[in-house]
Amino acid sequence: MPREIRLNAFDMNCVGHIQQGLWTHPRDQSSRYTELQYWTDYAKKLERGLFDGIFFADVLGVYDVYGGNADAALRGAVQVPVNDPTLVIPAMAAVTRHLGFGVTANLVYEQPFLFARRMSTLDHLTGGRIGWNIVTGYLDSAARAIGIDAQMAHDDRYDLADEYMGVVYKLWEGSWDDEAVIADRATARYADPARVRAIHHRGPQYKVDAMHLCAPSPQRTPVLYQAGSSTRGRRFAATHAECVFVNGQKMEGVKEIVGDIRAQAVQSGRAADDIQVFLGATLIVARTDDEAREKFEEYRRYVSSEAALVHAAASLGIDFARYDLDEPIDAGKSQAVVSNVEAVTRSAGPQWTRRKLLEQMVLGSRQAPWVGSAARIAQTLIEWSEQAGVDGFNLSRTVVPECFDDVIELLVPALQERGAYKTGYREGTLREKLFHGARLPATHVGARYRGARANGEH
Predict the structure, then answer these.
(1) What is the CATH number of the domain that holds 209?
(2) Does 244 map to a domain?
(3) Residue 395 in contact with residue 281, Cβ under 8 Å?
(4) Residue 55, beta-bridge partner list
(5) Which helix (H) or strand (E) holds 127?
(6) What's the CA gap between 57 and 55, in Å, rounded?
(7) What is the dihedral of CA 386, 246, 168, 40, to 10 degrees?
(8) How crowded is residue 195: how many other Cβ atoms within 10 Å of its Cβ?
(9) Domain contains 348
(10) What does residue 42 show for φ and ψ, rounded to 5 degrees?
């Protein structure tokens, strides 16, 4: 019997997300991203399809690496304009009971005290269905937006992130005891001061002396996602992440990353199954292989090569406009998403060029789509699950909403027939649905900050 596969919709509160140019397709509705009805209908659709969640990407800057400015990004709607993803989540939660919400938030540019409150609020409002995709950013434009000349070096950002996590763990796990809220009308005592404490943190980057402003939420700490698969990113994931998002590449490479992260987690005292891995995937699904290929060819007519290069330039930290089509590209000094650079090098070779990159971006991104009948795609997902050790897939949108309609109407039944997909939701919080307990397990580093232990300094 195959393992149960998990599915997230992978999207962003903007027009053009991963597959650049497809917003111009006449059936695409992503330009409705400013309408609340768009997001509530979206949530209800995903829950009908028993999706585990929707995974929101986000960026805090503009893609201005290509050509040295943001002109091409603005022309092609390459993740700009982009709205705050957290603000649509309560509305989506109000029309669903089970759908989870993973939201990307950059910790480098936000004080941990304020961020901890916002995530606790979302955990309360969703009934414990919130997850946080921990990112440290990769855009110099985001750094300049808050008065910094350039972003920190790649590994330094992870060092800062380790300290940041210590602060938010103290706030989420240690400031309020479970029994702190009494809500006794007869004695007019709402909370017991003896069970609420200020946390004290003194570290290289942060100084915090305050109690958490929120009472304990259903999960306390949101489900923790992390998407870095560089050497430093893997170490961070092995320590903190519960769900790891890896980008699609050759199966051998994904299997190696998955095995390494889980091995490092075990070395740190965690269990291998404390971490679930989601592979990014783009699907073109139809009833038959021929119909799927026909749809793929139709979609290709709307791809923007320029927009695809704009997106790749930012995520790889390389201005492709400076290179001729077949000129070797120097990627050695990039401080952007190092794991992306490593992935491209693995697929295109050490001497990659604009031409090689464009050959990979057949649907407007570096993520080559899987095209085929529901039966064929179901078997592909099962093979990746069994052979590479991934637990689920983050499905990036192509033409919405039909790309998810195809998954729900065709692929989900095909997976269910093979015993590889649930037929109903498990009750409980997002963490209970993905794992078992509502709170971080005792083996997780965040559990060390519970109760009075939160008063320790960094």
Answers:
(1) 3.20.20.30
(2) yes
(3) yes
(4) 10, 102
(5) none
(6) 7
(7) -90
(8) 15
(9) no
(10) -60, -50
Q: Which two tokens stand for residue 172?
A: 């989420």
Domain contains 302 = no
Instruction: Look at residue 228 in the predicted model and tell me its pLDDT.
Output: 72
Q: What is the distance between the alpha carbons of residues 79 and 94, in angstroms, rounded to a whole number?
A: 27
Please tell me the distance from the alpha carbon of residue 378 to that of residue 410, in angstroms, as a whole number.
10
Residues with Cβ within 8 Å of residue 290, at least 6 apart in sequence: none
Cβ contact 67:121 at 8 Å: no
332: which residues sit within 8 A by CB, 6+ positions away? none
User: Which of 184, 374, 154 is CA-nearest to residue 283?
Assistant: 374
Q: Please give the pLDDT value at position 453.
A: 63
Domain that holds residue 19: 6-58+91-181+191-297+368-451
What pLDDT, in 10s, does the model give residues 337-351? Answer: 444 555 554 555 556
**Residues 142, 162, 84, 407, Cα dihedral to 10°:** 120
Domain assignment of residue 437, yes or no? yes
User: Count of domains in the chain?
Assistant: 1
pLDDT digit string, tens, across residues 71-130: 999 999 999 999 999 999 999 999 999 999 999 999 998 999 999 999 999 999 999 999
**What are the tokens at 6?**
């998990």
CB distance 92 to 101 below 8 Å: yes
Query: What does DSSP assign to residue 248?
Result: -
